[in-house]
Specification:
Low-confidence stretches: none
Shape: elongated
Order of helices and strands: HHEHEHEHEHEHHHHHHHHH
Strand content: 5-15%
Distance between the termini: 27 Å
Largest sheet: 5 strands, mixed
Mean pLDDT: 80
Number of helices: 15
């Protein structure tokens, strides 16, 4: 009980220190709201690489001719050939392909009869930009196929091929859904990083570090007390922005609230670990701020928030595995747009736990080492 009372006293002290400082209050409240609305209204992205799968029920020379045009295109990468309709759901849900090309069994018959042949293109609407660009690529290839077919066949028997388009999870391909869904976690990373990275450096710069050391607190208790306010503020901000995503921008929330809270909580703990590591290495607040920005900018770029990770070089894709923001961006899109629950986001949860276990012990060791 004495340990708990000491930790609570330290937490209250940290909360008072943050809330009594006008600049710290502004960091907690102002930038997250400003950045949320700026990004929500202004951010748009372009992508170029498209993974696709094929379900060819016709298996005729005509269907193979059409699919050969896709294989020859540099804009597409064939990742799977499906054997049944049930595999379409699995391929899209698991993110193995951005696009499914479905050629029905009567494709060649209708094409030769001149009664109007169709193919179905199913796009993963969770990434609306990729879906829209991929669909435009498909239209270009189909137009070329139509021209070749008209040349090869008599005009009276030739017929243009029609495309039936569908986008899953984001039927209208609204790019704002893709941007805003993970925006709360991305912005709140900045708040948590700044608060935690400044926590120990502030004590050193204000001259209260030595007073803290002679108080009846262990280094572990001090670091725990400095961690919890950042986690609480970050979690509160991210949940507020998640609610604003739904009520202001109209992003659908199809997943589990428990999965959302748990994913954000794990993410905040991992970011606190990184922030405390930066703070323990810094002697001044200026060093702490510079260290935070050195971490944050690559984290955003390598998270998949701006550029699809699969478009990066293989060595850089491997490097993104140590980036906590990568996991929360993917998880939030799954929760909001796909309707994921705890089971579905588990692959994005355990890496955050591992990152926390890797960053928090060195932060505690550095704190003890520099305290000594």
């Amino acid at each position: 009980m004495k340990v708990l009372r000491r930790i609570i006293a330290l937490i209250i002290k940290e909360l008072k220190m943050i809330m009594s400082d006008p600049k710290s209050r502004f960091v907690v409240i102002g930038p997250p709201l400003i950045q949320f609305f700026l990004f929500g209204y202004a951010a748009t992205f372009d992508v170029t690489q498209v993974r696709y799968a094929v379900y060819d029920q016709a298996r005729t020379s005509e269907s193979r001719q059409l699919l050969a045009d896709f294989s020859a295109s540099d804009s597409f990468e064939l990742v799977a050939v499906l054997d049944g309709l049930q595999q379409i759901d699995e391929t899209i849900d698991q993110g193995r392909a951005r696009l499914i090309i479905h050629i029905p069994a009567d494709f060649s018959e209708k094409l030769n009869r001149g009664s109007g042949a169709e193919i179905q293109v199913i796009a993963d609407g969770r990434n609306s930009n990729v879906a829209a660009i991929a669909t435009s690529y498909v239209i270009d290839i189909v137009n070329r196929f139509n021209q070749e077919w008209l040349i090869q066949n008599a005009p009276e028997t030739a017929v243009r091929l029609n495309i039936e388009q569908r986008a899953w999870f984001n039927s209208n391909l609204l790019s704002r859904w893709f941007v805003v869904a993970p925006l709360g976690g991305t912005i709140c990373m900045v708040v948590v990083m700044i608060l935690t990275s400044l926590s120990v450096a502030r004590e050193r710069e204000f001259g209260t570090f030595d007073q803290l050391l002679v108080a009846p607190f262990t280094p572990g208790e001090i670091l725990l007390a400095k961690s919890i306010p950042g986690i609480l503020f970050g979690l509160a901000d991210s949940l507020v922005l998640a609610a604003a995503s739904v009520w202001w921008f109209g992003v659908p929330f199809r997943g589990s609230i428990a999965a959302l809270v748990l994913e954000l909580l794990f993410f905040m703990v991992s970011i606190v670990g990184v922030g405390l590591l930066v703070s323990s290495l810094s002697m001044t607040m200026q060093q702490a701020l510079l260290g935070s920005f050195i971490v944050m900018m690559p984290a955003v770029i390598l998270s998949g928030f701006v550029t699809p990770i699969e478009n990066m070089p293989d060595w850089l894709q491997t490097g993104t595995l140590i980036n906590p923001l990568r996991y929360v961006v993917l998880a939030l899109r799954e929760i909001f747009l796909e309707g994921a629950g705890l089971q579905q986001v588990w692959p994005q949860l355990w890496p955050l736990f591992v990152i926390s276990c890797v960053t928090l012990p060195p932060a505690a060791w550095l704190f003890r080492h520099r305290a000594g």
